[in-house]
Design goal:
alpha+beta, 12-stranded antiparallel beta sheet, 14 helices
C-alpha cells in the first residue's frame, strides 16, 4: 500500500490499552474485501532492534515520515504496537493499526486542519479524501483504507457475530497461520486469476526442460525475523508434490553454481552460498535465508557504495 498522509498520520488517533486489546476482535478478522494477502508487522519489536533502526535511519523518506510523527508526539519505537495489513493484487487495501498512546484529539485537529471530509457512519467518524479513509473503531483500533470502501469493514467490526478471516478467506487464513508466529513480519497470500495471468512470463527454465514459475504457486506464507540478523522463510504451496520437488531441484541447480563463484569469495561474500536452504515437503516448496547482523551490514554498505558511485557517475 502506498504511503499517504492519512495513512501515516492516522496513527495519531490511537487510543489504546493492553487490557482492551486483549478483549478486542483479532485485527486480521476486521478487514473485509477481495484481498490477495493478509499480514502483520510487529512495529514495537522491530523498533527495538538496533539493526533495523539503522536501516530505517538510512532511508531519507522513512526519516522524513518518522520526524513528522515525532513532531506530532508519536515515537514509532514506543507508541505503535502492531500494524495488520490486507492487500489486493494491485497493492491497495486496508490496515488496522494498534498502538499504545491515546492522542485522538491531535488526530481530529489534524484532519480538520487538512480539510479532510468527515461523516458519521453508524456512530463511527470517518475521515476521507479522494483516495483514502480512516476511522477510529474503538479505543483500541484504527482502520485505514487506500482505494477501498471502509464501510464493510466497519459493519463487520460492529456486527454481533463478525465474519472472521477463516470464514471469509480460508486459504489466506491457513497460509498466514503457517508463517512463524514469533516473526516480526508475517504474511499469508493466495494466487488470484489476475496475478496468475500477469505472472505467466515469470518462470525459471532448466536445461532438462523443467521449469518453475509464478503460475505453479497456489498460495504462500512469508515470515521475516530480526531476532539475530535477518531470517526470511517462504513456504509456497504448489500444484503437486512433483511440482515442489522439481522446483526445489531447479532452484538449487541454478543457485549453487552462482553462489559458489570464486569472485564472491574475493568480495567477502562467500557466506551467501551457505546462507540459503531450498527444499520441498509434499506440495510445499520451502526457502530460507539467514544472515547475521554483520553480514547484513556488509551487504548494506556495499549497496550504499554502489548507489553512491552510480549517482557520482551520472553527474
Amino acid at each position: 500500500m502506498k504511503r499517504t498522509y492519512i495513512a501515516g498520520l492516522a496513527i495519531l488517533s490511537l487510543g489504546l490499552s493492553t487490557q482492551a486489546m486483549a478483549k478486542d476482535l483479532d485485527a486480521t478478522d476486521i478487514i473485509v474485501g477481495d484481498f490477495m494477502s493478509v499480514g502483520s508487522i510487529n512495529v514495537k519489536k522491530i523498533g527495538a532492534n538496533s539493526m533495523v533502526d539503522k536501516i530505517v535511519q538510512s532511508n531519507p523518506d522513512a526519516v522524513k515520515s518518522l520526524n513528522e510523527l515525532k513532531a506530532a508526539g508519536i515515537d514509532y519505537k514506543k507508541d505503535i504496537d502492531v500494524i495488520t495489513v490486507a492487500l489486493d493484487d494491485k497493492g491497495h487495501g486496508c490496515s488496522v493499526i494498534d498502538g499504545s498512546k491515546a492522542i485522538k484529539p491531535a488526530f481530529d485537529a489534524y484532519m480538520v486542519k487538512k480539510q479532510y471530509k468527515s461523516e458519521d457512519y453508524k456512530g463511527v467518524a470517518i475521515y476521507s479524501n479522494s483516495r483514502d479513509s480512516a476511522a477510529l473503531l474503538s479505543e483500541t483500533r484504527l482502520l485505514v483504507c487506500d482505494k477501498f470502501d471502509i464501510k464493510p469493514s466497519i459493519d463487520n467490526y460492529k456486527a454481533d457475530k463478525p465474519k472472521t478471516l477463516k470464514e471469509r478467506a480460508s486459504t489466506i487464513y491457513n497460509m498466514y497461520n503457517k508463517a512463524s508466529k514469533s516473526a516480526e513480519i508475517r504474511f499469508g497470500a493466495k494466487m488470484t486469476s489476475s496475478l496468475r495471468s500477469r505472472g505467466q512470463a515469470y518462470k525459471l527454465d532448466g536445461v532438462d526442460g523443467a521449469s518453475i514459475g509464478v503460475t505453479d504457486i497456489d498460495a504462500a506464507a512469508l515470515s521475516v525475523s530480526f531476532a539475530s540478523g535477518v531470517d526470511i522463510s517462504v513456504l509456497a504451496k504448489t500444484k503437486s508434490a512433483d511440482t515442489a520437488t522439481a522446483g526445489a531441484k531447479l532452484l538449487n541447480d541454478t543457485l549453487t553454481p552462482l553462489l559458489s563463484d570464486p569472485s564472491l569469495e574475493q568480495l567477502g561474500l562467500a557466506f551467501l552460498g551457505k546462507a540459503y536452504k531450498i527444499s520441498s515437503e509434499k506440495e510445499n516448496l520451502k526457502a530460507n535465508v539467514k544472515l547475521s547482523e554483520d553480514q547484513v551490514n556488509l551487504l548494506m554498505g556495499m549497496a550504499e557504495g554502489a548507489v553512491g558511485g552510480s549517482k557520482a557517475g551520472s553527474k
